[in-house]
Amino acid sequence: MMKRIFGFYGMRGCLLIAFLAILSGPTTVLAADSSGEWRPTYDLIMMWLNFGILVFLLVKFTKAPIANFFKGQKEEVERDLHEAEEKYLVAQTKVAETQKLLDESDARLKEIKERILKQGEHKKQKIIASAMEESRSLLEEARRRVDNQIVLARSKFRSELIDAAINVAMVKLPGQVTKDDDRKMIDQYIQKVG
After folding, report:
1. DSSP state of 25
2. So what's the pLDDT on residue 186?
3. Which of 29, 47, 122, 189 is 20 to 30 Å from the Cα of 7, by its Cα?
4. Mean pLDDT, 10 residues at a time, over the chain (194 residues)?
5. Residues 5, 69: contact at Cβ < 8 Å?
């Protein structure tokens, strides 16, 4: 549509410029030199009359199309402005929605962070309790092992002490025990068994 308007007005504009160039050119060239003194006045009047007719025709035939052109341009600019305002309002709405989503996501992120911290603290307490239980269990196990080692050491010490006492007794007693002592021991043994 714009090409058609500019093509139509462009042709008329070119014609207007051509007529103005002809009219503004030297007027004496168009007239004959030897015609007298009335001719320059006649040429001047006719030039102004032709100019008036040209202006009248231009105004008559181009007034409505030029007015329509400017009216169309005005409507197009208003339409573009209206579309730009609608786009601006849509963009503002989207910005507001995006800001709302950002605020909500910040709040959600804060909640998630707090929940993670609570879960971390809970797990930390569980780990500490488990470690305490395990260390208590290890301490008890170590205590049992130590007690067992002590019992074994006492038992070993006792058996070594008994063996040493028996060895000492075996070395000293044969020289000190008499046949009467032997008989008394045998009698005591028989009384206990019998």
Report:
1. S
2. 85
3. 47
4. 53 65 56 67 93 90 87 93 94 94 90 90 91 90 88 84 79 74 84 83
5. yes
For the full predicted model, state whether its pTM sits above 0.90. Answer: no
Tokens of 185: 């021991």
| Strand residue runs (E) in 87-183 | none
The pLDDT value recorded for residue 97 is 93
Which tokens sit at 81?
Answer: 């402005």
Distance CA(97)–CA(91), nearest Å, equals 10
Q: How far apart are CA 105 and CA 101, in angstroms?
A: 6
CA distance 87 to 89: 5
Which of these, 10, 17, 25, lies nearest to 54 by C-alpha position?
17
> Can you tell me the distance from the alpha carbon of 71 to that of 64, in angstroms, rounded to the nearest whole number?
10
Question: Which residue carries 């929940």 as its tokens?
Answer: 115
The C-alpha atoms of residue 59 and residue 66 are separated, in whole angstroms, by 9
- pLDDT score, position 99: 93
